[in-house]
Amino acid sequence: MYVKELFVDNFRNLQKQKIEFCEGINIFYGLNAQGKSNLLESIRLLSMGRSFRGSKTTQLIKFGEDYFYVKAIICQENNDKKIEFGYKKKENKVIKINGNKIKSASELLGQLLTVIFSPEDLNIIKEGPSHRRKYLDSCISIVEKNYLYNLMQYNKILINRNKLLKNIKEGKSKNILEIFDDQLVEYGAKIIVVRQNYLKNIEINIKKFLLEISNETAEIVYLNSVGLKDASDEKIVKKRLKEKLLKNIDLDLKYLTTQVGPHREDFKIIINGYDSRVYSSQGQQRTVALCLKLSEFEILKKETGEKPILLLDDVMSELDENRKKYILEKLQGFQTFITHTTKRDLKGDCYFKISNGSVIKE
Ligand code: ATP
Ligand code: MG
């Protein structure tokens, strides 16, 4: 698939305009703070339903205005698909696919397939477990149909279980705890099995990319909440999770939170035998992040049978010549959007100059 055209109105600092893209590599160049990342953000918004920079929807509205609207025409197997996203302050978001309003932003997932590369990817490697969980969940939710639903159900039950722990501490009966535990186990096990399989897939790909890029070995270790080396058998995972919940009940009651489960999980990326989060240099971590993203891209491509679109925000300036060449070769044949401060040293199929929110095709 590829984005044929984009229309933005009151989105961040971007001028109201329609932009037509080409199918190959689109280069957006301009000085700092002109609107390059904002442009990629508007495309990614139509793909994921939210900002890739973690901003709230209301922050996407141009300063001093009270709404924004973004529309894209996507070409997929010679058919055009229209995706629209509108938001007015104090009102609900209005998202439409081919003119039909959808009930929840989650219905957008899978409609416009994108993979974003940005300097913040480094946080997935460097930061705490919640960053990796969030990343994992967002990748999986596109390729696994029920994943997001199961995750949302799990989180709801978790909140209620934690409330119940408080009530039990205050003297209420423990009896209904088992009902919550069973539900938590039901959804939790499904989440764990899918995460396990996805991470196995990531491992196969990341091994290959890292070997090619820097001749290093990579391994992924899934730190699942059931303590299993391989957590892909749902029946076994269920049994183990139930046992863990029962075993931890005293701790749960002490801290009034559920101590085990998918909400506490993590994964490690081991490079040449060492945990990349702890031992890799900044440059190595950057390479690992790049390979992780390339793996996400490979899986998305394979699982959907579609050609995802690549959004590269400011990553070129951070890569050395070899890595730059490597990534551009990998992305051949896919629509790619690259932001850069200069036009020089990047070969594209079309170029756009961005200045003060205005995007001019050359
Ligand atoms: P850099 O090369 O530094 O990454 P950029 O071209 O990617 O720059 P953007 O992140 O797209 O820059 O931001 C462009 C401008 O948009 C910034 O000056 C920023 O302050 C401004 N901006 C951010 N949010 C809004 C908003 N809601 N309304 C208007 N302007 C905004
Ligand atoms: Mg930027």
TrEMBL record:
Cited SUPFAM superfamilies: P-loop containing nucleoside triphosphate hydrolases
Keywords: ATP-binding, Cytoplasm, DNA damage, DNA repair, DNA replication, DNA-binding, Nucleotide-binding, SOS response
Claim: Nucleotidyltransferase is one of the keywords in the record: no
Residues in RecF/RecN/SMC N-terminal domain copies: 2-341
Leader sequence segment: none
Single biological process term from Gene Ontology: double-strand break repair
Binding, ATP: G30, L31, N32, A33, Q34, G35, K36, S37
Any one of the GO CC terms: cytoplasm
Any Pfam family the entry gives: SMC_N
InterPro entries named among the record's database cross-references: DNA-binding_RecF, DNA-binding_RecF_CS, P-loop_NTPase, RecF/RecN/SMC_N, RecF_2
GO molecular function: ATP binding; single-stranded DNA binding
TM region(s), chain numbering: none
Cross-referenced PROSITE patterns: RECF_1, RECF_2
Localisation: Cytoplasm
Primary role: The RecF protein is involved in DNA metabolism; it is required for DNA replication and normal SOS inducibility. RecF binds preferentially to single-stranded, linear DNA. It also seems to bind ATP.
NCBIfam families: recf (TIGR00611)
Similarity comment text for this entry: Belongs to the RecF family.
HAMAP family listed in its UniProt record: RecF
Name used for this protein in its record: DNA replication and repair protein RecF
Gene source species: Thermoanaerobacter uzonensis DSM 18761
Gene name of the record: recF
